Amino acid sequence: MQLDDFKNVAANYRVIFFDAFGVLKNYEGLLPGIENTFSWLQSTGKEFYILTNDASRSPQELAESYHRGGAYAITPDRIISSGMLAREYLDLKVNHGTVAYLGTEGSAHYLETTDLKTLPISEVDLSDVSDINALVLLDDEGFDWNTDLNKTVNLLRRRNIPVIVANTDETYPVSKTRIAIAIGAVAEMIETIVGKQFIRFGKPDAQLFMFAYERLEHLTLPGNDSFKPISKRDVLMVGDTLRTDILGGNKFGLDTVLVLTGNTQPQDAEIQIRSTGIIPTYVCESVVISD
Amino acid sequence: MQLDDFKNVAANYRVIFFDAFGVLKNYEGLLPGIENTFSWLQSTGKEFYILTNDASRSPQELAESYHRGGAYAITPDRIISSGMLAREYLDLKVNHGTVAYLGTEGSAHYLETTDLKTLPISEVDLSDVSDINALVLLDDEGFDWNTDLNKTVNLLRRRNIPVIVANTDETYPVSKTRIAIAIGAVAEMIETIVGKQFIRFGKPDAQLFMFAYERLEHLTLPGNDSFKPISKRDVLMVGDTLRTDILGGNKFGLDTVLVLTGNTQPQDAEIQIRSTGIIPTYVCESVVISD
Amino acid sequence: MQLDDFKNVAANYRVIFFDAFGVLKNYEGLLPGIENTFSWLQSTGKEFYILTNDASRSPQELAESYHRGGAYAITPDRIISSGMLAREYLDLKVNHGTVAYLGTEGSAHYLETTDLKTLPISEVDLSDVSDINALVLLDDEGFDWNTDLNKTVNLLRRRNIPVIVANTDETYPVSKTRIAIAIGAVAEMIETIVGKQFIRFGKPDAQLFMFAYERLEHLTLPGNDSFKPISKRDVLMVGDTLRTDILGGNKFGLDTVLVLTGNTQPQDAEIQIRSTGIIPTYVCESVVISD
Amino acid sequence: MQLDDFKNVAANYRVIFFDAFGVLKNYEGLLPGIENTFSWLQSTGKEFYILTNDASRSPQELAESYHRGGAYAITPDRIISSGMLAREYLDLKVNHGTVAYLGTEGSAHYLETTDLKTLPISEVDLSDVSDINALVLLDDEGFDWNTDLNKTVNLLRRRNIPVIVANTDETYPVSKTRIAIAIGAVAEMIETIVGKQFIRFGKPDAQLFMFAYERLEHLTLPGNDSFKPISKRDVLMVGDTLRTDILGGNKFGLDTVLVLTGNTQPQDAEIQIRSTGIIPTYVCESVVISD
Q: Closest by alpha carbon to B69, among B37, B23, B30?
């Protein structure tokens, strides 16, 4: 398997979409040297966005966590999270009443900007659910799994309401050797039990890519091609997970880079590409650029 | 849809296999009048067995719960539980070391009669798992879902060991209007996350039926046909759930009765039979026989 | 279940997206009186698009079939087919070589406009496949199922190439009482066999909606609101199938109408909405407007 | 990964269950030298049975094919095929009328010994199906896939009848480099389309193992242990496929041997065992015994 140099690859594109976890940071924090990558992007006038399935924190909170690590280039407006799609859905489709949620209070910020009242599932009274018009699964923390998942199942037996899953990941790493179950896997279990079709936002779904891509339309970009409008050919998607980042990027029509700093181990990359049939345009060791 | 009288139907068979929950009892206890059914079975010399996916309690404990309700005819040797298949598997296939489990202490009685040490998942030390040679999922109670399910996932990433699911049910009723998530649904979530194939015991799988059927081989049964050996034509399976009791009974070659006192509501029975293609030989309102 | 009048509902929107089969036409041809609907749309200055998973014919051919039925308002530029997404994908992501396909010669028109050579799977020589860089599943006709599906499986074992499914439907009606297997169901079978992840275009996927929605951006629409840019609130999606039209429209953020002239029978609509949890904004008997 | 010698392993068991394809034979015929294995089994007084998911031919025809290759020890009574389970099901559960089938005339022999009329799906008249009381999927040959699979779907929409799948394999090898789609994969496609639950016979399901195991009960076996009744500890299951042979053997409580002459390639065995969690007791290169 041929490994390409990230800087050489990225030089050919005007916009870079990055996945966050496993690409820019891991369970220990930002990847050492990642600020060099953003310095280079800014010095060459390239645009970039972070596309993340992490709906546990708002773009502001996420940006602050990058700033604490020294990556000042990542401003809130450059972060596109699946939680933002959940909010857009609620704005457009659920006009009134209460939205129940599974997740932390922090994750519920995505919901609080709509006209809806928000209620953690732990506070739902199953004997009086007529005002609950939607349920959103945001994060695996902030509730008691046994009590509140059973409550969720019973809520969905009483109310035929839309259920939105704002993070489709099944697991996430918590240390070099351990992973944790993410809300996406919990959502699949509940969906099977109640037999209903949930609405999922997040990679590989096209909607997250579209949300980011629409922001590019009014940009003026430097470089020789600056007067041409942005097209999908100008955008490179970078991720560590074949089934979300690479599949989603490919399907949206973007060139893709698989990096080996996260979910896909160097020794497994080739066999996984062959066995899944999900083929990145390039494979790079890391997005970190050495000076 | 034609409803048949249970006594008329059962009169044509020499042996009756009953599912427990939804057939003999519900969330409130034994069905009122169920003792009449067992009196009639005994007076007519019919054999009967209870085939249950409930591995949360031993046959002794289960029998005692029937006795407390007045159904003295149900002795421990007439109860065939999926937990017994889990124990047989461990006896035959896992010879030494420790078996970790998810479930209550009561459910772990199934495991304690083997030569293996048993360890609740809460007490597993993930940094020292080399002695753990199997994992058994017994019951949805007796552990902390968030902490211990994450621990389970990480155990299975470290040890390539057989995983036995001793209760394949996805949910069970806890009141007239509420259900709870059963360990079978949790097992599916973990199986998907770790990508491995678990070993399931319990209806509709043939092995539980076989386990009961083998007990019939040495029986001498009264009646005109008593000198003929028992065949599958002599056995009637009675259950409230199409996908476990009826599918499993049909596949094993038994005639089947769907009763409407549990998972299948009277108003839904016909549409469910048509939509699933799982066709009971008879449909009866209840197994309770009025005097 | 409350039935709404389509004209009353549609009056509140500026743009209507229609599914084709089961909404505008059925196995017998165009719905009688459908031309009234388009006359009314034109007289009130409403925009409309046809969003179809039918990749068996080009927009030109599809438009001609409407014209033969008297619906002259449906011009090729108003037809958005999943085949157009397949073509865009090939343009962006597969730059050279040959694309093999399953489908009729007519369906292959979608592929022929790219720089790629096209080859029906029947003409693929399995001993020389190094030039084949993509496979597209377009239609269930135009090939021998036994021979060519086996050939497809073996091609995908030799070449790790992207596979595009341009019609995700599982079946389609061919008469009042009969259905036929569509290429979407065949695609799922082959995907399971080869264990790879195919790329699917077509409802409920957001990309088909996005493709249509992007066409609205430069429109000037009449009416009181004509100077406001089009938003998702101005668009109504109309379909006969919950799992494609309604789920997809809802998720994209559009209001939705379920009509009862196709896949969803009047007597089943309520139970299907409840059992799937896919909830249309409105239910109408038909889009046909009586004078 | 440790490779064991088959003769050394088998010496510790009284009965050997063999899978056929990939173990005793491949697309070119019997494995060279396989007769030595059967000579040794007979000289040491070991019992053996062939457990096969191949319902395309009767035990007589299958035995003849072994005889033509020189393996005279394999008599029809030693062959247990999933077709025999299909026949037992029809005998017990479908008493009258017609059974339609997908498969060759040869495969239909399994059905012809019952009291039922048999009818290939190609001869079914969809306008008169009231006499059809079951459908059996036997083999991937003997019918036109396009025409007859569509006919099958429409039959199952008209008649709510049991559907039996007598071969659960998804593919089978036809040459060193090519595979073909087996009826098991076709069955899954149709099951998904019609939304009904089919009845599957064949490994890994316990019923095929049980069928073979019941034949052992009246045996008198030579050796030191000859006066003890046969137990599951005396039986060794040998197969080339983890998901059928090994999973099924393990679950039934047998020790298992994975051989590397069929579906599982030597270079893939270890990774497949780890990734599936299906763990054979032993891995052997082949069952062929060199003199």
A: B30
